[in-house]
Amino acid sequence: MTLLDDVLSYNKQFVANKDYEGFETSKVPSMKAVVLTCMDTRLVELSSKALGFKNGDIKIVKNAGATITHPYGATMRSLLVGIYALGAEEIIIMGHKDCGMGNLDVDAVLTTMKSRGVKEEVLHTLEHSGIDIHHFLEGFKDVRENVNNNIELIYNHPLFDKSVPVHGLVIDPHTGELDLIQNGYDKVIK
């Protein structure tokens, strides 16, 4: 049996038992916040529970490293939609200690790609098309700096409402302990 078979089988029972009733909520976050955090498996539940949020309280945007890689990419779009279309009034950028994107070995990733069938010619074509594959895949050296860089990118974005506080946190993926990087209330422009 495959993972997909397991998922579909479980889902039939989930729906038949009406287990979804315990998760019913609206699409608008009741705590009026959007959280950008990492897709790390240790944070699936911990990222909400350690902050005191339950289902329906917040919008969560997750990606590798909790990083905004482009000012007009999907992550920034999600944050803006959260503010302008879904009623969020605050943003929390939450990196974490021991992140896989911290000092990511891009050469090792490229070696794995090649071993799984990505041809060297494809990588060369991308490079000649102006795509710096190393830059595209690289992570960051310091999680605190990454959180601060994200906050600055948001505050400097021409479409961002500067009256919205953007908080910066770093969570310990083992204990849930938070380090405050930026209190967004201190930076709000009214």
UniProtKB/TrEMBL annotation:
Can you quote the record's cofactor note? Binds 1 zinc ion per subunit.
- Reactions it catalyzes: hydrogencarbonate + H(+) = CO2 + H2O
Q: Which residues cross the membrane?
A: none
Q: Which UniProt keywords apply?
A: Metal-binding, Zinc
Q: Which InterPro entries match?
A: Carbonic_anhydrase (IPR001765), Carbonic_anhydrase_sf (IPR036874)
EC number(s) reported in the record: 4.2.1.1
Q: What class of enzyme is it?
A: lyase
Query: Does Zinc show up as a keyword for this record?
Result: yes
Cofactor(s) demanded: Zn(2+)
Recorded hits in PANTHER family, A to Z, give: CARBON DISULFIDE HYDROLASE, CARBONIC ANHYDRASE
Q: What is this protein called?
A: carbonic anhydrase
Q: Supply the source organism for this entry.
A: Macrococcus equipercicus
